[in-house]
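User: Modeling request: complex.
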Amino acid sequence: MSPVLEPVVPLSARRRTVPRWLRRTTGPLLLLVLWQVSSATGVLPSDTLASPGTIAGTASDLLKDGTLPHAMLVSVQRVLIGLALGGVIGIALALVSGLSRLGEDLVDASVQMLRSIPWVGMIPLFIIWMGIGEAPKIALIALGVTFHLYLNVYAGIRGVDAQLIEAGNSLGLGRWGLIRHVVLPGALPGAMTGLRYSLATAWLALVFGETINADDGIGFLLNRAREFFQTDVIVVCLIVYAALGLLADFIVRTLERLLLQWRPNFTGK
Amino acid sequence: MATELHRQVNSPEKESGQEQEDGSGGAAVRVRSLTRSFDGRAVIDNLQLDVPAGEFVVLLGRSGCGKSTLLRVLAGLDREIEGEVLVPRRKAVAFQAPRLMPWKRVWRNVLLGLPGRPGRAVAERALKEVGLDHRVDAWPKTLSGGEAQRASLARALVREPDLLLLDEPFGALDALTRITAQQLVAELWQRRGCAVLLVTHDVEEALLLADRVLVMDGGVIAHQVRVDRDRPRDIADPLLAELRTELLDRLGVRAPEPAVHKVA
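Assistant: Request completed. Predicted assembly structure:
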């Protein structure tokens, strides 16, 4: 008796009724609707949390009267200056300790020691040293950035394939040639990882710095809103923080796509 | 074709860049009393070696016999040595793994480390010579194993070496690609006329390519045979079969009866 045959159905033939992206957006949308309904029916008082509708209105008001754009500009500026400062320090230290044994012995132990101090705990000291102006906020951001970049760039440099260094040697590259053509490009993936971590830390440091004391920026809006129980403004500020963080991440991803296209394990398109 | 300036591979203690003009005109390699020890164990033990300019020498040996160490010494990559080692200033190495810089496109890999600022055309010429002119702009990750090895060869050849050092360059290639790559190396050698020292553990490869096959054992060149046959060679050639048995015997492997081959 011959066996009963059945067709192997190709995967593409299985119809999906609802596209994936739609299914994925349904959850958050339902949550938003639930929030709006709770606010409208009074289950969720506006003193606790403003309704999504109110928040959208507030956001558009703050955008129109220029308060929000100005605050964003001030905050982004702080992050950029802190990032640049911490970036230069972190990368410079990583190069010193990554490229030479002497540098490693001198720098690495100190950096590892300082790294174990929680940087948020430095705030009181920074205020005593630098007052309550822009300086302590930028210093806090720079501090958080420095360690991430240092660790990742240093690990990147030390992780460069020794076989490639040897190949460079056999091709007649000198010390600087090796650093330029082999070591630094090889450390780039690590540096990009470090940049990503540092950006996340930079936003966190910004929130800490601005919440404690600020007369300008998003943190200032946030603090003032707290005093007047404006939960709508608070939520708008939180959303702005999140959006700026996402934007920064997007920029780093784009950079990675441009700079790391040679990587064998790169899969993005 | 005479090999020009010879440069001594210095052991680190006496690194002074001293150059030695000696009477060894026409030699590509001159090694006297070379010893290289790892933790007191001599892997190369008082080794002597002469390679005339333009000769194709294949170095055979079992794993761990020191053949790769010898190649690294000649390449100047291992300088913890005692003895006298003279090699041409212009030498190039191709390793078992292609060791292309993954962050440089193929043509930039080829030009890496060349003095001056050579243009892209120089790389294109070298890549054309190895049959890779269609992958000039490719990233190394997109090359097949054979293509990557050819790029590595182009990178070595573009330096116009008087001595080409090949460390099992076909070891990681599949059997079919290996045959093509061997033919390519033979062609390039005939065209360039540089001395070649190729390290391998493949006896047939040695017999197909070499003017002279050296067997390394116990830290010295323990045995050598001359292969006086025109190229391209056929591995079924009775002389080669005879030499193959001899070499395998030297390497401590009993060759199968020739009859077994003919059955297939």
